[in-house]
């Protein structure tokens, strides 16, 4: 695990220049160029604010556990985090309540059901996992705080530690989610009815709608991934975003349940813990190495960014990132950050 | 794969732009495909030596950095300028100028740009023009363009005058170049007054900095007269100063040869 290089501005600047000059940047550009022309998928439109996204937006970022980053395309374009927030809220709940209390309220079993399914595990009386909406609402319920504003403040501060700067809620998206989120409201009240969540259900739904409406960039998501890859410490600020003991909890549910109901295909093909959101964002984690942030609004039928999935598949293939890969003889992705790594003839 | 040569000095007016233009021209005359990118965004100048005006260069590096054109669209083929010399030119020479419009210079300084894009531009230019050699003319001192150019260059041509301030600055640049692992560094002492013993100066400088001194170039009155109105080596192909420069150019192409030798 790396420690922050605070105070050494020159080191940071030289690091930035090396990353900008690195073969990894060229590889990301190539992958970006390969998927940018893909016009498949549709932009989410269940609320009008999301439909405003430009379908051409496509950003790609990598941040290493040393805090080096490579960003290409629309990596500074903001979008709402949506479901990518779910594992992070799960982490906050774990810190607030402890593992045992959290697991009493939400399982860690993947379901083949869609993310917004009302399916609940009646045997254990809890939602299947924190990545489906029901489970996310149950985990949001566990976020501590004396009242709603306090809980929202704690939630935003937590995101801020992952990305390394203060974050904000997109109010348009939030108000829209809030006024049209009948299905989520129904899920919340159904769970209240079963005694699965506490009676502050309206506050919790509000918290949930706000957590989904937090604005991030592809670079921010890569930073989230890098923080999780780095044992819970943001590699640039050196600030801890998540207790080390819970990092594996998050990565495990991301691995098995992170990509909506295409989790099996994802694990087979990419083999990395990841989480996608209907805003077009995807975060993927290479533990001990780096985080990947991808953003492009058009979604496939499962709700995952088409270009994001494609680019991630390609990255994993080129650099042997699949967790079960062994004896890979191709290039090491971290080594590709060194501008002095001999380039192929071209 | 092309060889990337950064031409740099810690202080201004040392002769970076003139050296870049002359060395690049000599390499092109030897048959290499060469380009110069003027990354001295704050005080561009190398275009002047090739007589590039706005009509010839409607686009420039700034447009590329803002994403409004491809970098090769900003490249001007200046090979005909070299053909004013004695021999027909076997290679090619292109220049990517930087904008001299004050508002465009101001905009880059105010808004900055993604320095990674500059690297993307160098790589794209190498590819699309099938370059053997890419020369990067830089702004004096330490800034992002310069550090990036050091980070990617295979060879650094570091220019200094025999001046106490230049000595200090050169030491700073050398430290940065070493930290950015520049594989090869050639030091050139320029504007050496006739009163100084060039041989002794070469030995002293090499000993002070521990790097190869590729050339000791005199203060050249004909060059003062040319006054950046042309490329010296094409105007005075047989001048002793040109012969000195040819030695440095030879040194650069030797460095380039293993990678850039063309079939
Ligand atoms: N060896 C030299 N002898 C005389 N004048 C020179 C010599 N080298 C450069 N000059 C002159 O010095 C001035 C600055 O040169 P230039 O190449 O623009 O420097 P830089 O790009 O480092 O600022 C120009 O007028 C140029 O003609
Ligand atoms: Mg100059």
Concise structural overview:
The complex is a heterodimer of chains A (346) and B (263). With 346 residues, chain A is an alpha+beta fold.
How is this structure best described in words?
The complex is a heterodimer of chains A (346) and B (263). Chain A has 346 residues and is α+β, with helices and mostly antiparallel strands. Chain A has 2 domains: 23-81 and 217-342, 3-Layer(aba) Sandwich (Beta-lactamase); 83-212, DD-peptidase/beta-lactamase superfamily (Beta-lactamase, 3-Layer(aba) Sandwich). Helices cover 45% and strands 9% of the residues of chain A. Chain A has helices at residues 9-20, 23-35, 48-51, 85-97, 99-105, 133-141, 148-163, 171-180, 182-193, 201-212, 218-229, 244-257, 263-269, 306-319; strands spanning 59-64, 69-73, 79-80, 215-216, 274-276, 281-286, 290-295. In chain A, strands 2-1-7-6-5 form a 5-stranded antiparallel sheet. Chain A has a two-stranded antiparallel sheet with strand order 3-4. The radius of gyration of chain A is 19 Å and the shape is globular. The two termini of chain A are 35 Å apart. Residues 1-6 of chain A have low confidence and may be disordered. Chain B is built from 12 helices and 8 strands. By secondary structure, chain B is of the alpha/beta class. Chain B has one domain (3-255): P-loop containing nucleotide triphosphate hydrolases (Rossmann fold), CATH 3.40.50.300. Chain B has helices at 16-29, 46-49, 61-65, 79-82, 102-111, 115-128, 144-152, 164-179, 198-209, 221-226, 232-235, 240-260, and strands at 3-8, 33-38, 76-77, 92-96, 133-137, 155-160, 184-192, 212-218. Chain B has an 8-stranded mixed sheet with strand order 3-4-2-5-1-6-7-8, sandwiched between helices. Chain B is globular, with a radius of gyration of 17 Å. In chain B, helix 1 crosses helix 12 (240-260) and helix 6 (115-128) packs across helix 7 (144-152). The interface between A and B is medium-sized, with 20 and 20 residues. The structure holds adenosine-5'-diphosphate (ADP) and magnesium ion. Adenosine-5'-diphosphate (ADP) binds next to helix 1, strand 7 and helix 10 of chain B.
């Amino acid at each position: 695990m790396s420690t922050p290089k605070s105070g050494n501005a020159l080191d940071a600047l030289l690091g930035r220049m090396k990353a900008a000059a690195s073969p990894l940047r060229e590889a990301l550009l190539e992958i970006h160029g390969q998927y940018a022309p893909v016009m498949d998928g549709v932009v989410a439109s269940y609320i009008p604010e999301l439909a405003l996204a430009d379908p051409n937006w496509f950003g790609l970022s990598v941040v290493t556990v040393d805090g080096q980053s490579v960003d290409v395309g629309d990596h500074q374009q903001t979008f709402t985090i949506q479901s990518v927030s779910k594992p992070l809220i799960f982490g906050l709940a774990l810190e607030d309540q402890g593992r045992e209390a959290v697991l009493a309220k939400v399982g860690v079993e993947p379901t083949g059901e869609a993310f917004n399914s009302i399916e609940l595990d009646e045997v254990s009386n809890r939602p299947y996992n924190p990545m489906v909406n029901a489970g996310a609402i149950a985990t949001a319920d566990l976020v501590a705080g004396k009242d709603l504003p306090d809980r929202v403040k704690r939630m935003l501060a937590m995101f801020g530690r992952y990305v390394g700067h203060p974050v904000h809620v997109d109010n348009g998206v939030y108000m829209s989610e809030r006024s049209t989120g009948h299905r989520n409201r129904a899920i919340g009240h159904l769970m209240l009815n079963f005694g699965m969540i506490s009676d502050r259900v309206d506050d919790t739904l509000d918290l949930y709608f706000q957590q989904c409406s937090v604005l991030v960039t592809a670079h921010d998501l890569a930073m989230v991934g890098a923080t999780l890859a780095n044992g819970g410490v943001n590699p640039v600020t050196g600030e801890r975003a998540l207790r080390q003991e819970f990092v594996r909890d998050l990565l495990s549910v991301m691995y098995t349940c992170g990509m909506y109901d295409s989790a099996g295909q994802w694990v087979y093909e990419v083999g990395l813990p990841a989480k996608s959101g209907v805003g077009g964002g995807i975060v993927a984690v290479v533990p001990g190495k780096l985080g990947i942030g991808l953003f492009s609004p058009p979604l496939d039928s499962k709700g995952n960014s088409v270009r994001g999935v494609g680019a991630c598949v390609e990255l994993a293939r080129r650099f042997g990132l699949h967790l079960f890969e062994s004896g890979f003889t191709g290039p090491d992705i971290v080594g590709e950050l060194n501008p002095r790594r001999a380039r192929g003839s071209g | 794969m092309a060889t990337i040569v950064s031409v740099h000095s810690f202080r201004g007016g040392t002769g970076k732009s003139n050296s870049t233009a002359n060395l690049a021209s000599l390499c092109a005359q030897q048959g290499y495909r060469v380009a110069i990118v003027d990354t001295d965004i704050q005080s561009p100048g190398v275009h002047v030596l090739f007589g590039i005006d706005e009509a010839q260069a409607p686009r420039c590096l700034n447009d590329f950095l803002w994403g409004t054109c491809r970098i090769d669209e900003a490249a001007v083929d200046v090979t005909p300028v070299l053909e004013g010399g004695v021999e027909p030119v076997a290679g090619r020479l292109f220049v990517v100028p930087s904008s001299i419009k004050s508002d465009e210079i101001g905009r880059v300084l105010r808004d900055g740009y993604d320095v990674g894009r500059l690297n993307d531009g160098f790589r794209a230019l190498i590819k699309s023009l099938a370059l053997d050699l890419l020369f990067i003319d830089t702004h004096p001192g330490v800034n992002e363009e310069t550090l990036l150019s050091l980070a990617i260059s295979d060879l650094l041509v570091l220019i200094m005058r025999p001046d106490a301030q230049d000595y200090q600055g050169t030491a700073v640049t050398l430290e940065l170049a070493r930290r950015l692992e520049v594989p090869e560094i050639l030091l050139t002492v320029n504007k050496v007054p006739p009163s100084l013993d060039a041989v002794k100066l070469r030995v002293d400088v090499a000993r002070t900095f521990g790097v190869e001194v590729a050339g000791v170039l005199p203060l050249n009155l004909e060059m003062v007269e040319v006054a950046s109105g042309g490329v010296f080596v094409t105007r005075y192909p047989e001048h002793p100063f040109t012969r000195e420069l040819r030695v440095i150019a030879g040194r650069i192409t030797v460095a380039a040869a293993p990678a850039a030798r063309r079939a």
